Amino acid sequence: MVLQILKYIAAAATILVGVISLFWPKQVLGFTGLEVSGGRGTTEIRTILGALFVGLGAAVLYFNTPETYLVLGATYLVMAIARGISMLIDKSAVSSNIISLVSELVFGIILIL
Question: How far apart are the C-alpha atoms of 93 and 112, rounded to whole Å?
Answer without folding.
Answer: 26
